[in-house]
Amino acid sequence: MIGNMKRIGYLFLMVLLPCFVWAEEVSFRAEAPSQVVVGKPFQLRYTVNQRARDLQPPEFTDFEFIAGPYSSQSSSTSFVNGKRSSTFTLTYTYTLMANQEGSYTLAPATIRVSGDTYTSNAVRIEVLPADEQPQQSTTHPQQSGQSASSQSSASASTGQGDVFIRTIVNKTRVHEQEALLLTYKLYFAGLDIAQFTNNTRLPEFEGFLKQEFTIDDIQTELEHYNGRNYQTAVLYQTLLYPQRSGDITIDAAQFEAVLRVQVRQQVRSIFDDFFGSYTNVTRTITAPSVTIQVAPLPAGKPAQFSGGVGQFNLSGDISNTEIKANEALTIRLAIQGTGNMKLIKTPAVDWPEGFETYDPKVSNKLKQTTQGTGGTREIEYLAIPRAAGSYTIPAITFSYFDTRDNQYKTQSVGGWTIQVARAEGDNTQNVAVQNYTHKEDIRQLGTDIRYIYTGELTVVPTREGELRFGSWLYWLCYLIPLLVAIILFIVFRRRIAQNADTVRVRYMRANKVAQKRLREAKQAMDKNDHAAFYEAVERATWSYLSDRLRIPTASLNKENISSILSGKNVDESLIKEVNEVLSIAQQARYAPTTDNDMQQLYSRTTALINQLENQKL
Question: 166, 259, 518, 542: least buried by Cβ within 10 Å?
Fold first, then answer.
């Protein structure tokens, strides 16, 4: 009975599951292409994540209404680790068309969900003009803009489409260290880009420091260029900082792309005409070179010039103006702006005499922008006054070249008067360090600094048995380590010389290597692994003979082993035993054997190597 009730409950849950909506935050969004073309239809979609009704779209006054709304919905439910999650999506689709170019904004729409009204986001759409005429030529001559940009392009003909890459810089005339943005931008129409290969050749950017932008995913968008609409994508982008004046040419770049183009062929069936035929074509596309005119920085640089080029702002403060001797004093500066932030020098602080100073701590919170490196450089200075008195810290100045006004500018902060009171007591061991981030860099005065003793020195005579300078025990302490070092040097030098003779080393270690391989054979015999056993026995015998006779293994065979052993006055019975052991090991690897055969061969091989070890080979 209980089992039937559970089954009914599960069935009831599955029936109501698609109709059940979780109480989650309502999301109602409008989506449309950011660029469309005059006379070409496009779709506007409204999406809500819960069941809704009474969609009220805005007035389509700037667009021609073609069709809609068409509604569709989807839902899914999943169980993960015993937890259920459900999603629901309701979409309304309108088809519109623009009849006039320009930029337009579609007002938000409204919809009702569970009695409440929700509003979508507004949508901004840029309408591009239609193509003036089909491009018959795929050659795009280099163009130099009269404004603050230079735009160059080169194309690769495919026979059916158009594809080229422009070299775009936001400035063609800059000063030294002034940031400029270089972009390689792809344009294509009438075809698809399947992929880009790794055969990309970028210029060396000689004369520039560069900071590349990371492009994780190449996104395409429409752009009207030279009377035609193209799909475009940014392939590469970098900030360049010129390091010298004069005309600097950025060489051409090459990109290798795989293009997907339609094959023109005779139609043999209605299916060929309907589906079409495509092929992949590899093309090398060249982005043209571009020349940058770099002007030197004007004369009359301020004495405190930091090397900064851009727009910056200096701010700062001091931790305290009334402190006691041996207490830490901190000055914090912040340089904000955009330009060559990584190349500017740290402003100097003119500390008064009697202040113990430390290296400033610099932290950068920077990011790359199209105008240069922007963000904040924070600098923290630390000093400790050691004596009481009134001190003046002059203003801290920061000079840079402003690229907007084309002139040098100097900013300053501070000009503080510090009152230092006498420390409590005279205890230099007690140093207070406050309001400084890197306290581990400061050590207590009195433990890391020892003053010179100016009093009288008391000479204490050496007691009997103590080590004295010039005594025989004193010199013995030097001679013994020296003798040990000389002996070790001689021993290790001989050992190095012996190890350098690889043939001799193999000769000396022949028995050790053979015994190791015999142990491997014993392990294989215990596991009843016939193939591994006979292979280990054979290798042990051959390698031992090779090392002891100083002959490479590849040059050994039974015939020359017999002749060599005979020449060394080895007994004929021992030579015969060598040949028999090798023959048995070779034949047994490919023939049925018993455990008794393996044990007998193992004993014979061990005895053979021991007998050969006693021979003068």
Answer: 542
Terminal CA-to-CA distance of the chain, rounded, Å? 93
**Residue 459, number of CB atoms within 10 A of its CB:** 4
C-alpha distance from residue 116 to each of 19, 50, 112, 292 (Å)? 19, 12, 5, 59
Give pLDDT tens digits for 29-51.
999 988 888 888 989 999 998 88
Q: Measure CA 334 to chain center.
A: 29
- How many CA atoms, within 13 angstroms, populate the side-chain half-sphere of residue 368? 14
Q: Assess whether pLDDT exceeds 60 at residue 600.
A: yes
- One-letter amino acid of 342: K
Tokens representing 289 are 């070179």
Q: What is the Cβ-side half-sphere exposure of residue 612, based on CA atoms within 13 angstroms? A: 29
Tally Cβ neighbours within 10 Å of residue 38.
17
Q: Positive or negative CA dihedral for 557, 563, 568, 574? A: positive
Q: Which of 114, 119, 174, 167 is nearest to 144 (CA)?
A: 167
Rounded CA separation 14/17 (Å):
5
Cα torsion through 44, 45, 46, 50, rounded to 10: 170
Q: Report angle CA 238, 240, 242 to the nearest 5 degrees.
A: 170
Among the residues of 246-330, which ranges form H helices?
270-275
The residue whose two tokens read 């009702």 is: 112
Supply the DSSP symbol for 527: T
Residues paired with 241 in a beta bridge = 209
Neighbours of 507 (CB within 10 A): 15
**Residue with token string 């400790």:** 384
Neighbour tally for 398: CB within 10 Å = 24
What is the helix (H) or strand (E) element at residue 610, kind and residue range? Answer: helix 595-613
Cα Rg of the chain, angstroms: 44
Q: Are 417 and 394 spatial neighbours (Cβ–Cβ below 8 Å)? A: no
Model confidence pLDDT, tens digit, residues 329-363: 999 999 999 999 888 999 999 999 889 999 999 99
Name residues whose C-beta falls within 8 Å of residue 559's C-beta, 6 or more positions apart in sequence.
Answer: none
Q: How many CB atoms lie within 10 A of CB 395?
A: 13
Whose tokens are 């919905």? That residue is 73
d(CA 366, CA 378): 11
**How many Å apart are CA 284 and CA 278, to the nearest integer?**
19
Distance CA 18, CA 9 (A): 15
Residue 222 parent element (H or E): strand 220-225
Say if CB 90 and CB 47 are below 8 A apart.
yes
Find, among 263, 264, 260, the residue nearest to 283 by Cα.
260
**pLDDT tens for each residue of 62-120:** 888 888 888 888 888 777 766 777 788 999 999 999 888 889 888 999 999 988 899 99
Q: DSSP class of residue 404?
A: T
pTM for this model (two decimals): 0.56
Residue count of the chain, please give it: 617
Three state DSSP letters for 37-81: ECCCEEEEEEEECCCCEEEECCCCCCEEEEEEEEEEEEEEEEEEC
DSSP code at position 437 = S
